[in-house]
Amino acid sequence: MSGLRFAPLTSDALGAVLELQRESCGPLMHPLGEAELSDMLAGPAAGHGVVLGALTDRGLAAFLAVQFPGRAAHNLGRDYGLPEGDLDRALHFTGILVHPDRRGQGLHRRLIETAAQGVLPPDRHRYWFATVRPENTASVRGMLSVGMRVFARRPKHDGHDRLLFVRDLSAPAGG
Ligand SMILES: CC(C)(COP(=O)(O)OP(=O)(O)OC[C@H]1O[C@@H](n2cnc3c(N)ncnc32)[C@H](O)[C@@H]1OP(=O)(O)O)[C@@H](O)C(=O)NCCC(=O)NCCS
After folding, report:
1. Which atom of ligand 1 has the smallest separation from the CA of 142?
2. pTM of the predicted protein model
3. Domain residue spans of the chain
4. Does domain 5-168 have CATH number 3.40.30.10?
5. pLDDT by residue (tens digit) across 86-113?
6. Which of 1, 64, 97, 123 has its CA 20 to 30 A from that of 110?
7. Where is the N-acetyltransferase domain (predicted)?
């Protein structure tokens, strides 16, 4: 796909991320709050996450928001049964959104692969986690395509049932 540049976003992208989310989030993604987005945009050194953007000359085409939840109660490692000490090695793919004009071109997978290859500090994580509404076929397939697997199904965020995905990077993909 031509004309796309991947780069970690910084705090000055807050408005663009919120605008893309407002316009194109749809009913199946739990929208990210301004405070949690700001924290992720601050980057892994100052904040608790990373937001990877896919940019065109005209602006933001897609983003992947990643959070390091640490020992927080909502760390999905708790649902997975990780021991307390391993919670620090978990990350959440908290939001992934592609502009409607760019959907169906493999960007879900490319965002996660690009983040994994060059953006996420490898020493910060061993476990990837995500929650996805079962009816969100594109996102379910996108998560499976990067080696994640479903380990539970239960209500999350707004009370809707969600599939809980994990990938343990020390195990073979899908394990
Ligand atoms: C979910 C979303 C991020 C997918 O992005 P995308 O770049 O269009 O997805 P991809 O092109 O990488 O497709 C991923 C997989 O879903 C399939 N797919 C894509 N669109 C589909 C659709 N409308 N129906 C069924 N399958 C679809 C693709 O064929 C691909 O499957 P494969 O890996 O087996 O080939 C995008 O639809 C979106 O932004 N939705 C609104 C926000 C949202 O719901 N985010 C996810 C929850 S956080």
Report:
1. 14
2. 0.95
3. 5-168
4. no
5. 999 999 999 999 999 999 999 999 999 9
6. 123
7. 4-170
